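Subgroup meeting minutes
Present: P.N., E.W., G.H.
Scribe: E.W.

1. P.N. recapped why we're keeping a running log of single-chain structure predictions: easier to compare across weeks, and new members can see raw inputs and outputs side by side.
2. G.H. added today's entry (247 aa).
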Amino acid sequence: MLRTSQGGAGNGTAAADRRAMSIGAVLAQLREEFPEVTISKIRFLEAEGLVEPERTPSGYRKFSSEDVEKLAQVLRMQRDHYLPLKVIREYLDALARGEQAALPSPGGQKDLADSCWDAAAGAPTAARIGRAELLAVTGADERQLTEWESYGLIVPEPEGGYDAEAVNVAKLVSDLGRFGLEPRHLRAVRAAAEREAGLVEQVVAPLRRHRNPQTRARAEATAQELAELSVRLHAALVQTALRIRSH
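Output recorded in log:
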């Protein structure tokens, strides 16, 4: 069970403020049980309506202890049962209505792929999946997956399996392959990504070494925001280059 701060019933607003957490604090707390979770994942679950944090007048999210526990429940069902978000939402809604609902389990190759990949969101639904599940999601065979790994495009976890980022990369590599782009063609993309990651690390490294846990949590949020900006810049530059070449 995740630890959540508690306040006395007579403290009023002060107790509520102590229970309210920023998204960075929520990330730090969830990572005790889910090391792979990211700021983007939390925002995605919020966008899907699985949690509804309050907003301050300036627009910052404030999560309650109940929000954090619900996020943990969703992440457990993804991690342990490979369930798609639609199924999880229906299950939680049924429980909220007081109904006795059995936790469903995916079955069959198509259900397995659907349970690991949210087609509408274009994102993996599980925190970590196995090799068979990754092949089911991408439609690849063992030879292709081995080739992706040999070029460093896909890296399995030390204890086995693949995290959400690896699943996303594998899906993108598979999609690009349908246009004739092979792993050897993507080495430059991987090298550029590593250089960009190095730049981000230079910015957040001092924050990660800080003694204050909140500062370290802010480092993760900052790294995620910088990564998202880098991706947007990369996409814009590619579009600009294509537009210039078409003239």
